[in-house]
């Protein structure tokens, strides 16, 4: 017995195993097998694929889920539209009490409009349902209020036509130029929305005296902002389309070269 360790006695064999792959007489080590019989390399690949698949599945579940607080607020605003119309036209449409309840429904709808988009962007709750339903709810409550007011004779029809025509026109314009980019909401647009909400809310209430005069001027400001911001959006859309066409032409020339 020499007492030489087995590792030393088998040095040549160990060297062959440790040597580079492909050298003469070198024994290539088989891939390490997992407990399930598969190789570690395949297990890592499958594990990575499973991890990616899990993330994709989780993202799909999150995207498909519409029962979040932002979408619930949007749904509430949609439900408030028929309730508002019923209250607005209740008892002939001129009862101050019914008009007060209608104003409360309109105010809640406007408040939820301020919060649902902010919550969706802040807490990553944006869904396809929200993208479609949110602008529909906005236009529905405002359109219902304007049409009711004009039908009752409280607001000239041309005011309703200008505001609704602008809103629908800009919505269509956004879809037309979306292939070139997105028209961002401007400060003027946000001010227009706020002014419209205040003006329409004042008309929904049965106001008299100085407040009735004040609401006329607030609505006038809302109409002016509606027209000015609408023209600004048209200008942005034209610029965006020209830039998009120019970029496409430049990319096409570069690819041909």
Automatic annotation (TrEMBL):
One of its GO terms (molecular function) is CDP-diacylglycerol-glycerol-3-phosphate 3-phosphatidyltransferase activity. Coiled coil: none annotated. This is CDP-diacylglycerol--glycerol-3-phosphate 3-phosphatidyltransferase. It is found in: Membrane. Pfam families: CDP-OH_P_transf (PF01066). It is a multi-pass membrane protein. It comes from Streptomyces lancefieldiae. PROSITE patterns: CDP_ALCOHOL_P_TRANSF. The keyword Lipid metabolism applies.
């Amino acid at each position: 017995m020499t007492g030489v360790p087995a590792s030393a006695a088998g040095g040549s064999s160990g060297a062959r195993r440790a040597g580079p792959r492909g050298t003469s007489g070198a024994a290539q080590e088989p891939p390490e097998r997992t407990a399930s019989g598969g190789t570690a390399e395949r297990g890592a690949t499958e594990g990575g694929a499973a991890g990616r698949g899990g993330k994709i599945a989780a993202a799909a579940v999150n995207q498909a889920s519409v029962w979040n607080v932002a979408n619930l607020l949007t749904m509430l605003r949609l439900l408030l539209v028929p309730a508002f119309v019923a209250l607005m036209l209740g008892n002939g449409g001129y009862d101050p009490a019914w008009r007060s309840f209608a104003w409360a429904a309109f105010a809640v709808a406007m408040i939820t409009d301020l919060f649902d988009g902010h919550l969706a962007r802040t807490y990553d709750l944006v869904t396809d349902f929200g993208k479609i339903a949110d602008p529909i709810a906005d236009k529905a409550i405002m359109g219902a209020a304007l049409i009711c007011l004009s039908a009752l004779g409280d607001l000239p029809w041309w005011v309703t036509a200008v505001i609704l025509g602008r809103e629908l026109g800009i919505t269509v314009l956004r879809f037309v130029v979306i292939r070139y980019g997105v028209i961002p909401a401007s400060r003027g647009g946000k001010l227009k929305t706020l002014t419209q909400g205040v003006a329409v809310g004042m008309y929904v209430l049965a106001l008299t005296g100085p407040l009735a005069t004040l609401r006329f001027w607030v609505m006038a400001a809302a109409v002016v902002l509606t027209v000015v911001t609408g023209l600004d959006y048209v200008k942005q859309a034209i610029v965006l389309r020209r830039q998009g066409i120019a970029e496409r032409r430049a990319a096409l020339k570069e690819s041909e070269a």
